[in-house]
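An instance follows:
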Amino acid sequence: MLLVVNYHRLWPTGSVGRTMFDDGVFGPDLETFRRQMQWLKASTIILDEESLLGLRNGSGYPHGTVLSAVTFDDAYVDCRTLAQPVLDECGIRGLFFVPVELIEKRQLGWWDQVAYLLKQTPLKSIVVDGRGYDLASGFRQALRSILELFKLETADRTAELLTRLADACRIPLPPLALQSAELMTWQQIRELRAAGHAIGSHTLSHRVLATLDPSEQAREIAGSRRALEGILCDSVRSFAYPVGGPRHIDRHSIELVQQAGYGLAFTFNTGFARVPPADRLQIPRESAHSFAALRSKVLLPRLMGLNDQLALEPASTGN
């Protein structure tokens, strides 16, 4: 079986919970991540992008072997400053998925900007588009509800939602300098690639594909590959669907990923994949917010003799 573990951000050791942005995209702290990678290295065979692309029937791995891969989404600066040193120390080559326009514009995704506005507003309740949100006693529910709008409403209905939310909160959107500091630079992304890690596409703007018409999806999917290859002067062979749940992609998304020439594409549907994957353009991934969670995701299916795709508890975030 194949377990693909996905992260977005790491907490620095001793700094858990200290962010002006979205807590939900943070995984473990640095020391826990190091323990996870050391254990994964000792307990599984970790594949890089080249090995994943080369998986075939009869690949030569003993029956019952757990294969794994490590991925990161959204190109946060933690990928370079915290994650890469641990990966290099463990001899692990990860896959890092980059939303091109967010790096170009030095702009955080809508989930981080929404969290910032709700955290910084002096108001105890707000009204957006005729709907009220109680921030004093229901902050988490309010944040979850507003993020769901971005994930499920058509893009034309959410195009100006951040501006309307900022008006409702009576504060401006986060300054670009503050946003920029949370993201990798192109130079840091090139350094990751030079160290042997793979760089893949996470679309241009990180808009949810199912909320877009097919022509706009094509621009996001194929356009991001062309842009990344031009910036990196290297081939881009892997793709990760933004958010990546069943409701966030449609048949056009998968067809367009294939037409764009990607060899691998990753969802955020939780579970394990067969070896080789039954569908290389819909490979499931798992989050691992704790060391115990990662151990159980590897050990329990193996102890039960399961090597087909296995649905587990959905992750709390999937940006």
